[in-house]
């Protein structure tokens, strides 16, 4: 029987601390044999103390034997790569499974935070903690000497996770502080700092080898970016996060909403141009990360490109329909040209409404203007562009309309004189 099978006996057979009915004589004999000496322990010792010493020596011996067996199989017997891979991964999977069993069934939430603190009571919980320590030490041994054979989709040892957090916690806190000071929307900040918060607050309940590699790269790249650009733009952060394969749902939907805002108020033709520009901005990002933040989800870059392609198809269809309706409409020949921009036309319309010279539905008025006129900047005026510019007025538009009104007043004054 291999030494690793001791854990099966502890969890399923005669060595389970909860059901173990061994006698004092058994404990003394076993401990003495493990120590290679006779009569080391007195049979009159307290039963709980004897039991605790038994598991202590048993686990120490198991740790040494499993390491020796692994070393012998790989470096002395020279098993083939395939056999070594199978053996190492079997050990890794078994140890992780039993570690999770201890965490779920034998440690309270408080114990879970103090897995390596064994009390002087020598209780059953303390025995399971020693079992956990032994298995975690073996996982750490596998990491040190058989890293290339491990399944990197599985969690690292408890010790490795704590060490990663310890060595990255302070830097994560600094990066969070710098990102929160950046001149970008609050929602964007919260979406970006998520992984950093989990490191800072030590809430990474599990950390796979892939996640460990990814998180280290994520922190390193953001540190470098913020050193070079203390106040990066939202677009530059998007490019970095796409290159890092930070493929969370929250980021994808945030970027999607951001892109949609850039399309608001534009006519279909203008929307198409903007969509092509957005697509170019995503296509030109080089993905540098070998791992994805969430291995189960598609690439962030791929998802954005699929979304942009669908939006382009839809917008093309809308544009083609709008063109066909314009060509087939009898009103096309009757469209009149206004020597103003869309923004200026929207402002004039607003003045008419606010002066109560026009009343009723603004949408109906916008539809009338769209179907009846062209402007000096657009042959096709969309209702959406009129509506958006109606509520958003810049100083240049105000100056231009003011000049028109002054010219009209001048002409009116001269009409009165004649």
Mean pLDDT, all residues: 88
Share of residues in strands: under 5%
- Written as H for each helix and E for each strand, in order along the chain, the element string is HHHHHHHHHHHHHHEHHEHH
Major β-sheet strand ordering: 1-2
Q: What is the total number of structural domains?
A: 4
Helix share bin: 55-70%
Main β-sheet, in a few words?
Answer: 2 strands, parallel
State the assembly state of the protein chains: single chain
Quote the distance from N terminus to C terminus: 119 Å
- What is the CA-atom radius of gyration, in angstroms? 36 Å
Report the total helices. 18
Overall form: elongated
Total beta-strand segments: 2
Structural class estimated from helices and strands: mainly alpha
The residue ranges in which pLDDT falls below 50 over 5 or more consecutive positions are none
């Amino acid at each position: 029987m291999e030494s690793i099978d001791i854990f099966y006996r502890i969890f399923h057979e005669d060595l389970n601390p909860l059901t173990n009915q061994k006698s004092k004589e058994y404990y003394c004999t076993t401990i003495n044999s493990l120590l290679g000496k006779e009569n080391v322990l007195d049979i009159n010792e307290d039963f709980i103390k004897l039991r605790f010493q038994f598991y202590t020596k048993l686990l120490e011996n198991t740790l040494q034997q499993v390491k020796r067996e692994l070393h012998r199989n790989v470096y002395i017997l020279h098993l083939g790569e395939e056999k070594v891979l199978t053996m190492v991964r079997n050990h890794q999977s078994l140890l992780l499974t039993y570690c999770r069993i201890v965490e779920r069934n034998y440690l309270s939430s408080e114990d879970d935070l103090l897995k390596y603190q064994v009390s002087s009571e020598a209780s059953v919980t303390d025995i399971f903690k020693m079992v956990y320590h032994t298995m975690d030490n073996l996982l750490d041994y596998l990491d040190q000497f058989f890293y290339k054979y491990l399944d990197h989709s599985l969690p690292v040892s408890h010790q490795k996770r704590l060490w990663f957090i310890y060595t990255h916690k302070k830097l994560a806190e600094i990066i969070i502080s710098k990102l929160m000071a950046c001149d970008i929307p609050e929602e964007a900040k919260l979406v970006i700092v998520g992984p950093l918060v989990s490191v800072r607050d030590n809430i990474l309940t599990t950390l796979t080898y892939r996640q460990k590699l990814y998180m280290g790269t994520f922190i390193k790249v953001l540190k470098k970016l913020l050193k070079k650009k203390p106040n990066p733009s939202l677009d530059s952060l998007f490019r970095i996060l796409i290159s890092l394969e930070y493929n969370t749902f929250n980021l994808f939907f945030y970027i999607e909403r951001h892109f949609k805002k850039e399309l608001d108020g534009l006519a279909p033709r203008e929307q198409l141009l903007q969509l092509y520009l957005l697509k170019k901005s995503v296509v030109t990002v080089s993905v540098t990360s070998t791992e994805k933040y969430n291995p189960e989800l598609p690439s962030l870059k791929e998802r954005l490109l699929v979304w942009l392609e669908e939006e382009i198809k839809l917008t093309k269809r809308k544009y083609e329909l709008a063109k066909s309706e314009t060509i087939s409409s009898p009103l096309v020949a009757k469209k009149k040209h206004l020597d103003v921009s869309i923004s200026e036309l929207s402002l004039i319309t607003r003045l008419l409404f606010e002066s109560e010279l026009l009343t009723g539905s603004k949408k109906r008025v916008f539809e009338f203007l769209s179907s009846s006129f062209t402007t000096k900047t657009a042959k096709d005026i969309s209702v959406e562009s009129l509506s958006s510019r109606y509520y958003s007025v810049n100083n240049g538009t105000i100056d231009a309309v003011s000049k028109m009104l002054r010219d009209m007043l001048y002409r009116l004054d001269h009409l009165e004189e004649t």
